[in-house]
Amino acid sequence: MLNLFALGRYALLGFVPLLLAGCNDGALGISGSVAESRQRQVFLRHYTPSVSTFTFAGVPYRIQECWVEQTWTHRGWNKMVIDPDKYAGYNFVVRVTPSTDQLWGIRFQSVTMQSQHLSSTASSLWSTTYGVPPDTLAYRLMLSDSTPTNQVIRFYKHAR
């Protein structure tokens, strides 16, 4: 006969190490702000957008800050690992407000590299690139059915 108590105990023993190790181990990290990026010591440079607001599905969004940081990954709950090859990868991050679930549906496509898009979280748009990012990045707002719009936002690298 199956002993459910013993089965539950073994399931719990398997779950606890997973819980202690952290479920996000190895996941790409994206800083939530320039301050956080600086604190993590991955911040590289600010970018300035050509416009400070854009509208998607009737909701106006304000671009708060834009930056490039070195790629990094999560290790457990509170640790991180910076990409060992300093020039291997970069995160381009655009923090916007308001922070809404609708932001998940926004899609921007690179004007110069159509296979590259800005992904989204509840509070930011981001993209990971390999190689040094150019001085100017340009992204076109796409409708939810992938139809391109006339709205293009350019981001200009700050001088050091």
Rg calc: 20 Å
Number of domains: 1
Q: In percent terms, what proportion of residues is strand?
A: over 45%
Q: Termini distance?
A: 71 Å
The topology string of helices and strands comes to: HEHEEEEEEEEEEE
Number of helices: 2
Protein structure class = alpha+beta
Oligomer: single chain
> Average pLDDT across residues?
78
Helix content: 10-25%
Task: Please outline the major beta sheet.
Answer: 8 strands, antiparallel, barrel
Order of strands across the main sheet:
2-4-7-10-9-8-11-12
> Low-confidence parts, pLDDT < 50 over ≥5 residues?
4-23
Tell the overall outline.
globular
Q: Could you characterize the architecture of this molecule?
A:
With 160 residues, this protein is of the alpha+beta class. The protein has one domain. The protein contains 2 helices and 12 strands; from the N terminus they run αβαβββββββββββ. It has helices spanning 4-21, 34-39, and strands at residues 28-29, 43-49, 53-56, 59-70, 72-75, 79-82, 90-97, 107-110, 117-120, 124-129, 136-142, 148-157. The strands form 2 sheets. An 8-stranded antiparallel beta barrel has the order 2-4-7-10-9-8-11-12. A hairpin with a 3-residue loop joins strand 9 and strand 10. It is globular, with a radius of gyration of 20 Å. The model is unreliable at 4-23 (pLDDT under 50).
